[in-house]
Amino acid sequence: MPILDELSGHEFEDVMEDVFRNLGYQNVRQSKKTGDEGRDILMEEFIDGRKRGVVVECKHQQKIGRPVVQKLHSAVATYDYDGPKRGIIVTTGRFTDQAIEYADKLRRNGNEHTVELMDGTDLREIADEVGLDLYNGRIEILCERTLRPIDPSSSLDAPVEEAFQSIQNFDTRNLPELDSSVTFKPVVSIQASVNAVFETTVGVINRVHENDHFVVRAERGRSSLLDSSIANLISNGQRHTVKIENPRIQQSFDDVSVERFGKTETEYKDWAVRRLQSRYTETVEYTGDNNVTYTKECEPNLSDISVESISPVYLPRIESEVTLQNYSYSLEYYAAGPSRETIENDINECVHCGRNSWTEHTYCDNCGSINCRRHVKTERVEGEPVCTGCAITERFAFRKKYFYDEENLEEFSAEYDEMGLHQKALENKPLLATAILLVVVGAFLLI
Q: Whole-model pTM?
């Protein structure tokens, strides 16, 4: 494996941390870089429902002899772990016959601290299984699962139909075919804990015992936490997942795109550890033996922070667009089975002023616009809604009237010319009411 051979020892440990995590081991983490007594990586596995500790020694060299196996066997035996434990030695090279014989002897004799040997050939065999990129020595996150982009009990059109149900003067049965696309956004869900105790000569001055869960945007570029509402959508939607290669996805959307994960799992783990270290660092005041008040910055050590799990998954970002005459409307949202989080909703906004869903909206059948109360009127001839953007206007009896088109205007103009004076007056009821009120008030004053 010539490319892996070019890595430094510490870089090789980073790669192997990703390998073991992808192989299904839990609580995978590296020990301190110095003084590790042969324990480069510590992790856990479940055998017959029982948790077992695993100690890994990474040897980035061509030939591994028996002394290395003996040393790791001793390191496993002295490893402070409450439960059964075993060791693994992994190398880019090969093991000598004496090393293989010693490891086999431990297993044959039923030793409780066995040592598994994993050489360069073994690494080649697991490369495809865990997505080992032999060209740069990285473990790229290869994820097959996505939160459901479509609720199986509903349809892709359902969210758009639901949005249109609140629009006055529109029948959802008249919705044309939608243009829909989905982008699968990579995210990583991280479970971690912080257990730190801070002491001085007067005793314990601060403790941190916290479990933390957060969801990280995992596309290329800077990592960041997702909004709590979207993070909850992901957490609650974990039971609503399907394979990203699901045929229904390809058949349902006009366009499908999948973004790649930007970092390795180890890099996300390191990002999480730094974040937790910063989050739980605080300055504490305490009183010394001499009754003097002191301050101390309590920053958790890296060994105080444990990342239990890193779970990659895709979050579908769906955009559905519908065109109604002169206007197009889009509904964009994150989906997780029956739940979704709206990002952008043009349907419940006025096309003229952008007022959103807190106010009533009405559809204009004349031009296809959606309008708030301020921008919708009643067409004089048809008696149906028309928006101020497309309406033809003319004043009659000093009051502005709204028409679908010139033909309707001409039709009403001819009708207006044939009206009697009292009928024309009724075309401006507020003015007529004011005139009547003035007459009544004037008559009252003359009495």
A: 0.71
